[in-house]
Amino acid sequence: MALWRAYQRALTAHPWKVQVLTAGSLMGLGDVISQQLVERRGLRAHQAGRTLTMASLGCGFVDFPDALITNYYLWPAVQLANFYLVPLHYRLAVVQCVAVIWNSYLSWKAHRL
User: Fold this and answer.
1) C-alpha angle 99-20-33 in degrees, rounded to nearest 5
2) Of 10, 19, 23, 93, which shows the fewest CB atoms inside 10 Å?
3) How confident is the model at residue 64 (pLDDT cuts 50, 70, 90)?
């Protein structure tokens, strides 16, 4: 809970910066999941550059001032719940948490040989 409270304080103090870092971190996490759980590369074969590329792409797809991620592929039910039930400043985190699975799939699909 202390980590969540620290996230909330940072989000209140620096909303745009925290949202960019959240989006990038979770996009990078999607790539790590893809490489380690789906592709089963192992740590020695992990492509760190690929993870950094995916994280950088995640950082670049934040739509400020609406504070929403611009990944329009997300499920309409998630977006509907997000718009009606989640306060504006938490929407990015909700969308990105749901998108981790999708990002893992996209990473796997994009880097499949």
Assistant:
1) 35
2) 10
3) very low
Q: Could you tell me the residue ranges of all domains in the chain?
A: 1-61, 63-112
CA 36 to chain centre: 17
Output the DSSP codes for 5-66: HHHHHHHHHSHHHHHHHHHHHHHHHHHHHIIIIIS--TTTT--HHHHHHHHHHHHHTEETTT
CB 15 within 8 A of CB 67: yes
- Whether the CB-CB separation of 61 and 37 falls below 8 Å is answered with no
Q: d(Cα 95, Cα 74) in Å, to the nearest integer?
A: 8
pLDDT value at residue 65? 38
Strand partners, 69: 62
Query: Mean pLDDT across the chain, nearest whole number?
Result: 84
What pairs with residue 63 in β-bridges? 68
